[in-house]
Write a structure and sequence with these properties.
This protein is an alpha/beta fold and 541 residues long. It has 4 domains: 5-154, Jelly Rolls; 164-260, Homeodomain-like (Arc Repressor Mutant, subunit A, Orthogonal Bundle), CATH 1.10.10.60; 270-382, Nitrogenase molybdenum iron protein domain (Rossmann fold), CATH 3.40.50; 391-530, Nitrogenase molybdenum iron protein domain (Rossmann fold, 3-Layer(aba) Sandwich), CATH 3.40.50. The chain is built from 23 helices and 20 strands. Residues 271-535 form the Fe/B12 periplasmic-binding domain.
């Protein structure tokens, strides 16, 4: 969004008719905060550190010359770009009209501002007032919040300026338009009128990746597009995207994509649809990148971040398959060849409409182990060899991880739990238990009643189980996050052996609640990282 004097005047006029009410304020210090759903307006003000803020599908760099607004129903996440945590203020507020009815706040996403030291001082004051137990301090916090909004809105940058970010944005656009040419760092640095070394450092700092990596990404993405459009020869394809050597292009493509150009082309000749995230996890293990799949920065964060450029059609990934009608409509227009479905997740009318669109391959869910699901999917798609190779590789990985974990954990008791709304659950997900018990053979605590799955438990029962390590999955919505915040302040929780020894590990729903081959593979990697010194920060918005 470009801010002009007219736009700023319009914002001011709208704000005259609105009433803004402070709800909460806090300073967040975090290395990674997975995408979570919000139920109020939030203002973000960056204080320190280098990182990125995800608001729904938009990726913003945290920096001192911009503020960010998110509104109810969006999802937000924060990611540091170095080992140092990022620090940012999150100020949550309600928006009402004079009539006390819900109103539309005129600002969203990134808003460029001139840096103002007073803004950070006001953020400190608002946060301190909100934490106070004194009602009068809460009143002062509301006043400071309105002053903060006034200061920030007065500092909106009206016109684009010639600054390093603007220059780099133009260089980035130039790369996207001229990727076929033999571009060099020296040439691009001359265009930016800075030294090559400074250009390299500034590009990496600004975009989180090197200029060469970005050029490679643009070339590979355009190669994928050309592969889908025609039967172009590999040599001609390489030349069209800026590579003079087809063999070097093939090696580069495989390094970036994970499969050779020939396998990628073979897989993309058929329009295969992964109708659920678990099916997507099986297809990726078989080196099949589908034409369509559920992708969203919260519900399927990993797949969205890594494969959104590879998968042309993004289906809704909203939980409980609530958007199935829009998915069916998209597929009807796309005319796929094959739709691979989890048999247990379809509504009757949904199944009938899908069967009118393309051939359906049904994969049993609840009654079949993920290994058998993978083998059946491979058999139906003619990828048995890929399934055998993947399972051998996975078994080797888990054997090595098992030996490593047993050396360090010995007989330590491990408890896996989840928090949803006001309840705690033990052994909450199939894949989680398969990996921890069957594949890694850890000493996993089954809970008070081993014959039950997903059983609710009290914090006092957690104390009776006496775990050495606790894996905690918190549903990323306000009520569950609030319960997690409350649990951490309870005396019973703080007295747990695992808590006292700093052996509580936050795990995300992606991959730990997905039941697929690819998700289990990622669980092993994640567990090794977390049990070898990673200590995720506890946070709440």
């Amino acid at each position: 969004m470009e801010y002009t004097p007219d736009h700023t005047q319009s914002v001011q006029n709208i704000l005259n008719d609105l009433w803004l009410k402070l709800q909460s304020a806090e300073l967040i210090r975090v290395g990674k905060m997975e995408q979570q759903l919000i139920e109020s307006h939030i203002l973000f003000v960056s204080k320190a550190g280098e990182g990125r803020l995800m608001i729904d599908f938009h990726d913003y760099r945290l920096r001192p010359d911009a503020i960010h607004f998110a509104y109810p129903g969006q999802t937000i996440g924060v990611f540091a770009e170095s080992e140092k945590e990022v620090e940012l203020y999150a100020v949550r507020f309600a928006v009402l009209e004079d009539t006390k009815t819900a109103a539309v706040f005129p600002l969203a996403g990134e808003v460029p501002v001139y840096p103002e030291p007073k803004a950070l001082l006001l953020c400190d004051l608002v946060t301190a007032c909100f934490r106070s137990d004194q009602p009068l301090e809460h009143f002062r916090g509301q006043s400071a919040f309105l002053e903060l909004m006034y200061v920030l809105l007065k500092k909106i940058r009206l016109l684009p300026e010639r600054d390093p970010r603007t220059t780099l944005d133009s260089i980035k656009t130039y790369i996207e338009a001229h990727y076929q040419q033999n571009l060099t760092i020296e040439q691009l640095a001359r265009m930016a009128d800075i030294s090559p070394k400074y250009f390299v450092d500034l590009f990496k700092k600004t975009y989180g990746k090197s200029c060469i990596d970005y050029l490679t990404e643009v070339r590979i993405n355009n190669a994928k597009r050309l592969m889908l459009q025609s039967d172009i020869r590999l040599r001609d394809l390489a030349h069209q995207v800026g590579y003079s050597d087809e063999f070097y292009f093939s090696r580069k493509f495989k390094k970036v994509v994970g499969v050779s150009p020939s396998i990628y082309i073979k897989n993309r000749r058929r329009k295969i649809v992964a109708y659920t995230p678990s099916i997507l996890g099986h297809l990726l293990a078989l080196q099949i990148t589908p034409y369509a799949a559920p992708l969203h920065p919260k519900w399927t964060h990993y797949y969205h971040r890594r494969y959104r450029a590879d998968i042309p059609l993004h289906l809704s990934a909203y939980r409980f398959n609530r958007d199935w009608e829009s998915n069916v409509e998209m597929l009807a227009h796309a005319k796929p060849d094959i739709i691979v479905c989890d048999k247990d997740s379809l509504h009757t009318r949904e199944r009938e409409e899908l069967e009118q669109i393309a051939q359906i391959l049904y994969i049993p869910g609840a009654e079949m182990h993920w290994r058998d699901q993978l083998k059946l999917t491979a058999q139906l798609l003619g990828a048995e060899h890929e399934a055998d190779c993947w399972l051998r590789s996975y078994d080797q990985k888990t054997k090595s991880a098992r030996e490593r974990l047993h050396r360090e954990l010995k007989d330590d008791k491990v408890l896996a739990m989840s928090i949803y709304k006001k309840s705690f659950y033990v052994s909450p997900a199939r894949g989680m238990m398969d990996v921890l018990r069957r594949d890694l053979m850890l000493n996993v605590i089954p809970g008070p009643r081993p014959d039950e799955h997903r059983q609710a438990i009290s914090v006092e029962q957690l104390a009776d189980l006496d775990p050495d390590h606790i894996l905690v999955n918190v549903c990323q919505e306000p009520e569950s996050l609030g319960e997690w915040h409350h649990l951490q302040s309870s005396a019973v929780w703080r007295d747990l052996k695992a808590v006292r020894k700093n052996r509580v590990h936050l795990i995300s729903s992606d991959p730990w609640r997905e039941y697929s081959a690819y998700a289990c593979d990622r669980m092993v990697d994640d567990l090794l990282m977390r049990l070898h010194g990673d200590r995720p920060n506890d946070f709440r918005i």
